[in-house]
């Protein structure tokens, strides 16, 4: 299992592989039914690794939506990686957490559970520390759970609660931007960074190398990394170009 790296001043890039029904896909606004398919998740993940990625952001969308799971495939992809893996999607209880951690992933990203079972999340934050991140997936400042289909409370109230419990890291997604190639929500990222001392991973909307440079400019404020999905699949730029753009 790869170790979680120490904080650095270089923006980490996490190319995304979102899995639906055994295929690598990208959605628009995270909405089920908007899938564009990009083939084998393993091939996509291996391609990002060959291109120099240090992280993979791997999402089980079926588990997130409650339409099944891709557990075996997610395990196969994670096992094939020599790089760090962040696992997301449908990790909501002891069983799904144990299965996710057993893949050898570097960390997991909890979403719905942070909204619906806060006591359990506090317990696993205390138990697993840096191996647990919480995804703050928002429309405006309202959190969304259950595959981003249900409202789940106020962003800043939840952030304060999770901070008080020692949450190690947040993955922040503006759902309105996700999968749209419309650029990240930099104001949201700045506001979240101002509200917490914990590192923030940006997600959703990256469309260009300039977007990545703009996110990299927020590293001193607390942004640690950026997930990149659609832009890589749509060949807006290559991962090699992206890594070079954020190298310091
Ligand atoms: O991460 C989840 O659990 C999730 C649940 C439901 C819908 C989408 C979900 N994640 C999507 C992602 O993490 C994307 O890979 C990421 O935001 C990349 O976005 P983009 O660069 O805009 O393609």
Automatic annotation (TrEMBL):
Pathway this chain belongs to: Amino-acid biosynthesis; L-histidine biosynthesis; L-histidine from 5-phospho-alpha-D-ribose 1-diphosphate: step 4/9; Amino-acid biosynthesis; L-tryptophan biosynthesis; L-tryptophan from chorismate: step 3/5
InterPro entries in the cross-refs: Aldolase_TIM, His_biosynth, HisA/PriA, HisA/PriA_Actinobacteria, Isoase_HisA-like, RibuloseP-bd_barrel
Keyword Cytoplasm: yes
Keyword annotations from UniProtKB, A to Z: Amino-acid biosynthesis, Aromatic amino acid biosynthesis, Cytoplasm, Histidine biosynthesis, Isomerase, Tryptophan biosynthesis
Active site per database record: 18, 137
Listed Pfam families: His_biosynth
Compartments in which it is found: Cytoplasm
NCBIfam families registered for this protein in UniProt: hisA-trpF
Protein function: Involved in both the histidine and tryptophan biosynthetic pathways.
Similarity section: Belongs to the HisA/HisF family.
Name of the molecule in the record: Phosphoribosyl isomerase A
Gene name for this UniProt entry: priA
